[in-house]
Amino acid sequence: MSRNVIISFIVFSSISTTALGQATQLLPDLITSPTPLRDNSIDYETIPGKKLLRLSNSSPNIGVGKMELRGGRILGDGKREVYQRIYLSNGSFVSRLAGIFEYHPEHKHIHFQDYAVYRLRTVTPNSGVGTIVASSEKVSFCLRNSVVYNRNLPGFNPKSEYKNCSSNIQGIGVGYADFYRKNLYGQWIDITDVAPGQYWIESEVDPLNRLKESNEENNIARSMVNID
């Protein structure tokens, strides 16, 4: 009898492994939309003595799967580990450590650290992209479905899932975008020491590659700006 039980167990284990081996990861794909970068302005008031270039920013998810973040171990000081949950084609999921949730006092809710960075670059001949002359600190974001980006993408869910800036779960669904307007705190590049002229505004989502995506080569977008 014992021998029969052992044989049955081995067969079951083999079937489970095969099933998992056939499952594929439904990965998200974050991009930066260039159009919101054109919504920019100069700010002399927020930080006395500083000249800030404010900009709007949008990061759509054009992948086949959700960008979903879930809170893990609480670290203290308003911080918590973050795991990216990746769904599989067989209905299961895997999780991987991705970074840190932290409380953002100016926005008064939970953000994911190091989500984006903004840069100002010179314009070279023939509208080429030159050197960095100024950049922001790495900007933290609350990931949520702010706006619909493309409802025709496979996997788009018309019932928006990610609406809140929770420390338990945040995300960007397929076909949605996380949109931050230029008036929000931190949406700027300090250009106090930048000479007048024409430049590229550059925004990069996930600059430290903390998040797993299907394409890591499309995270940057640019828009030209004239600074007087």
Explain this structure.
The protein contains one helix and 15 strands; from the N terminus they run αβββββββββββββββ. 9% of the residues lie in helices and 44% in strands. It has one domain. It starts with a helix and ends with a strand. With 228 residues, it is mostly beta strands. The strands form three sheets. Strands 4, 5, 6, 7, 8, 9, 11, 14 and 15 form a nine-stranded antiparallel sheet that branches. Strands 1-2-13 form a three-stranded antiparallel sheet, with no helix packed on it. The protein has a three-stranded antiparallel sheet with strand order 3-12-10, with no helix packed on it.
Secondary structure layout:
Elements: H1 2-22, E1 40-43, E2 52-55, E3 57-60, E4 67-76, E5 79-87, E6 93-104, E7 109-124, E8 128-135, E9 139-141, E10 147-148, E11 169-172, E12 176-180, E13 188-190, E14 197-205, E15 220-227
